Amino acid sequence: MPAPRKTSSNTAVTALMLLSPPLLYPVFYLVCLIQDTVLGDRLIIDHLRYVARRDLLELFLRDWAAALPVSYLVAVPVLGLAVLIVRRGIAGVCTSLAVPSLAVAAMLSATVLDINALPVLATSAAVFILLPCWVLSRC
Amino acid sequence: MNVLGINYFFHDSTACIVKDGKLVVAIEEERLSRSKHTGAFPEKAITRCLETAGMEASDIDHVAVSIKPDKDWQKKVLYGMRHLSHAKPFIKHELLNAYYKQRGLRDWYEKTWGSSAARPTLHFVPHHLSHAAGTFLVSPFESAAILSLDGSGEWSTSFLGMGRGSEVTRFNESFFPMSLGSFYEAATEFCGFRPNYDEGKTMGLAPMGDPERFHKEVSGLVGVGEDGRILIDLSYFNYQFWGYRRCGRKFHETFGKPRRAPGDFEQHHLDVAAAFQRVLEDRALEMCRLLEKKTGARKLVIAGGVSLNSVMNGRIVRESGFDDIYVMPAAGDNGTAIGAAYYVYNCVLGQPRDFVHDDPFIGNRYSDSEIEAVLRECKLNAEYHEDIESVGAALLQEGQILGWHQGAMEIGPRALGNRSILANPTLPGMKDKINAEVKHREAYRPFAPSAIAEARTTYFEDLGDSPFMLKVPDVLPEARDKLPAVTHVDGSARLQTVHKETNPRYHRLISRFGELSGVPVVLNTSFNIMGEPIVESPVDAIRCFFSTGLDTLIIGNYVIRK
Ligand SMILES: [Fe+2]
Fold it and tell me: How close, in Å, is residue A114 to chain B by CA atoms?
């Protein structure tokens, strides 16, 4: 029988579960922005440049708030799975290598296959999972 | 080879048939269903098109639909996910609506052809390609620059490109919510009209305002990038979230209180309409100049709902530097049925391009026996006149307001002389009389003149031919006193030039009127009352005749008096 993990680790997991879902929307927005600016039609950056900062912030906060329930719904099971994987000893290294390569492949597929929604979603999810897993593997 | 073209996704549902490269019939669903600008699947129009063309469904080889619902779906999904605070209207408008529209099309297709081996091929043509390429392919030009602008189709809102022979190249497109069409719709809403519906009213209101008062503010709301892309300060608007209201809080803080219809207009409403009209023209001109520089073309094709703004078109002719422009008569979404059909015929099937859409009279027509049957059924006394044009001209000269129902129905939003209300334009009180007694609409709204093509430059500024009422020239200063009922407050007029070749009866009527009055120009407005589509059948005409202040109705060669 494996020895029980330290309490500090359990606290870290709980904190992770509660604190990281709010990051999902900003991560997604950032990946959208990068994809659209580097590979896409620069629609978002045009929008950002043309609209007053105060209005942008207001809109962003509203969308962020609306995204919170969805983020928790999506993030808790996904993170739970990630925690399980880390605890079962599948090394964070594995995730650290696989996820960025997946992201690069996805970005490339956006240029070749003209599919940009799926890579953006995949990359957002990958970044979102990778960060907590990395934190977790350090606990 | 027969191609059936269909538009059904947004509004102005329409069907048309292209037979061996020739447009044989095109009918808008609203004219048959009597629901203005309807977006319902055009089943009635398709049936009527087949009847008029003398075809069965089995004769159709290809079906061209002016929408490609999966175009830009990823942009759409990411936009929806970025703006989760507006998830509900997004799901309703962009997902559920699209699903039901598609299901309607599939149901009709299955019902019509079932599992028949001879089912026509279904082609989905992107919306702006249907506008842009479609208009170019039926234009009289071998090569031309192309500008298409509308609210949005799929996700794109503009198309800048070049057409050469049967090839169309796109240089740039803008995407929702960067939309000149939606930008202008906001002004329509602010003035108390129905957005995406009444933009013509905003255009008519604009000359009554001062464009300078809000020019700086409105100008700051919209720009054109170096590559031709549209840039809009969305913080003033709400349309980007499919809201019930197009204008945002900041819009009202800047421009004042919106007009609540049917209340009176205040000066700032007129000034906002004027500024939006001016800025729309400015930005369209910028795009035209970019296109001219990039293509070196001397001709220009304008398409999309925004190209129904005939004042903008007039300014483009005057100031853009292009030698000639072409706008199809059904320049809005109704024309995309025709555009999609020609895109499939010329570009997909590789058939030669040899058709020019210069004849808008391609709808349903009624024979004498059909008219007589209706008159009998309605128990109406009617006189038959062989020389109906002389009779009509004499009645106009007397100052009567005529309902004029002739030949094949015109395609597009303008009545062009086959389903028209006509009057004497030389009488000063005529505009107010028709607005109050017949059309029951806002008193400021102007009426259009129809002039025989030969007399165009005698009375109007020379902006070239205007057979579809899609250019607005100035009335020459010396002619304004002669045409008080069709000269707008700024001295302009939404002119229609009438040609012997395309509408000989209407041309004869105006000529006869010219012989009597000395002015071969008549006042022409659509044969309908406010809120209803233009009449289609003799029954529609009779109903409108008896529910308005029209003096006399002429259907074919029959005169019906009150
Ligand atoms: Fe359109």
Answer: 10
Tell me whether residue A40 is in a domain.
yes
- Angstroms from A62 CA to nearest CA on chain B: 6
B116 lies in the same domain as B190: no
Instruction: Report the C-alpha gap between B223 and B280 in whole angstroms.
Output: 10
C-alpha A26 – ligand 1 centre gap (Å): 34
ipTM: 0.73
Contacts of B94 in chain A (CB under 8 A): none
The C-alpha atoms of residue A119 and residue B392 are separated, in whole angstroms, by 68
DSSP H helical ranges for chain A? 7-19, 21-38, 43-50, 53-87, 92-113, 117-138
Cβ-proximal residues to B68 (8 Å cutoff; 6+ apart), any chain: B124, B125, B126, B127, B154
* Displacement of CA B224 from its chain's centroid (Å): 25
Instruction: Compare all CA atoms of chain A with the CA of B175 and give the residue at the minimum distance.
Output: A43
Residue B272, CB half-sphere, CA atoms under 13 Å: how many?
Answer: 27
Rg, Å, chain A Cα set: 17
CB A81 within 8 A of CB A125: no
| A80 lies in some domain | yes
Q: Cβ separation of A50 and B85 shorter than 8 Å?
A: no
Q: Is residue A1 part of a domain?
A: no
Range of the domain at B428: 368-561
Domains contained in chain B, number: 3
Indicate the pairing of strand B496-498 with strand B448-452.
parallel
- The pLDDT tens digits for B256-305 are 999 987 778 999 999 999 999 999 999 999 999 999 999 999 999 999 99
B153 with B64, same domain: the answer is: no
Asked whether residue A2 is domain-assigned, the answer is no
Same domain, B301 and B251: yes
DSSP letter at B414 equals S
The parent domain of residue A133 ranges over 7-138
DSSP B501: T
- Residues B311-328 have pLDDT tens digits of 999 999 999 989 999 999
Please check whether residue B202 is in contact with residue B268, taking contact to mean a CB–CB distance below 8 angstroms.
no
Q: Are residues B282 and B401 in the same domain?
A: no
- B75-106: pLDDT as tens digits: 888 888 888 888 888 888 888 888 898 999 99
Which residue's structure tokens are 């392919």? Answer: B137
B314 is written with which tokens?
């007039």
- Residues B109 and B204 placed together within one structural domain of the fold: no
For residue A28, give the chain B residue with the closest CA. Answer: B82
